[in-house]
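queue> pop job 88
queue> type: inverse folding (structure -> sequence)
queue> payload:
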């Protein structure tokens, strides 16, 4: 049984999983990253997200007049495809200017999934604070969904 996002949020035993769809530049296609390895629909999301703690704050700010919310995402810089570190995709597919869609899905104890909700659509800026362990990228909003207000994620 698939739950709606609102039904899932009302249940205490379910937990949210962040999903990122990143449209790479230079015909790099779309990559699917998450804070958990998970199959959602026909997309296999790989665990590369270490932190996206200000998503709810960005969505809340989006209702402010004249505010252009941003989300900072910290990625695990482990190997990816043929690259020794995820950040090295920058050499072939620039991160700055790539479109990112942030979504959420809720899982129950048995791995059942709710519907997927889109929370934020933005454009990435340049990679920041890069180390062998991780790196950060800021996404400036082009669209948000105020649904995060109700869960108060920090």
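queue> result:
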């Amino acid at each position: 049984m698939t739950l709606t996002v609102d039904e899932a949020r009302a249940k205490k035993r379910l937990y949210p999983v962040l999903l990122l769809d990143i449209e790479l530049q230079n015909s790099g296609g779309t990559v699917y990253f998450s804070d958990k390895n998970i199959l959602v629909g026909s997309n296999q999301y790989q665990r590369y997200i270490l932190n996206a703690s200000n998503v709810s704050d960005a969505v809340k700010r989006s209702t402010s007049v004249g505010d252009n919310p941003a989300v900072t995402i910290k990625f695990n810089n482990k190997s990816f495809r043929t690259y020794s570190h995820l950040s090295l995709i920058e050499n072939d597919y620039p991160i700055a200017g790539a479109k990112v869609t942030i979504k959420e899905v809720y899982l129950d104890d048995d791995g059942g999934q709710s519907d997927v909700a889109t929370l934020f659509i933005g454009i990435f800026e340049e990679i920041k604070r890069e180390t062998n362990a991780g790196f950060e990228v800021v996404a400036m909003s082009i669209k948000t969904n105020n649904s995060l207000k109700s869960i108060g994620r920090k």
